[in-house]
Amino acid sequence: MFIYLVHTIHYKMASIFEKLFPGNKQPSSDEFNDDYVEISSKPVDKTGKAKVVVRPFVIEDFADIKPALDALREGYTVALINIKPLKDKDLVELKRAVSKLKKTCDTIEGDIAGFGEDWIVVCPSFATIYRGVEEGSNNLNPNTPGSGMQ
Question: Which end of the chain has the lower number of beta carbons within 10 A, N or C?
Fold first, then answer.
């Protein structure tokens, strides 16, 4: 009974549509299948899996930070940023650039860390940066104080 009712309503709606718009035929769902292409905003590789890009950037002045920030905001880029040229040139601008990176990192809920004297790594929210063994963990290294193996 329910299926008959749904079919009857559909048939009446189709006839009302035809009366309102004579000459216009309501397209069938089969007409769309040939030209339909699904577009994804995520970068994907040939297997269809989302890709993560590890991308280097060199910051020579404050304006050079924009491409790195844009890539981070997209959400699929781990940025390796060489700050040596800006550090050698202008420390005030370097502090300003690092501050901007930190704010963007907080906004995207990512992670940021420096390694070495001249590099900063910034990761999106799905990744974290390893910073060594945390206190209170069960460390079995015999040379570590408090490990119980001395």
Answer: N
- What are 89-119's pLDDT values in tens digits? 999 999 999 999 999 999 999 999 998 999 9
| Domains contained in the chain, number | 1
Q: Which residues contact 149 (CB under 8 A, 6 or more apart)?
A: 140, 141, 142
Phi and psi at residue 129, in whole multiples of 5°?
-100, 130
Question: Is 92 a domain residue?
Answer: yes
3-state secondary structure of 56: strand
* CA–CA dist 55, 83 (Å, integer): 14
Q: Please provide residue 128's backbone torsions phi and psi, each rounded to the nearest 5 degrees.
A: -130, 160
3-state secondary structure of 54: strand
Q: Is residue 68 a part of any domain in this protein?
A: yes
Contact 17, 26 (CB under 8 A): yes
* pLDDT, position 15: 62
Q: Judge whether 69 lies within some domain.
A: yes
d(CA 113, CA 127): 12
pTM recorded for the entire structure? 0.58
Residue 60 placed within a domain: yes
Q: At what angle do helices 65-74 and 91-107 cross, to 10 degrees?
A: 10
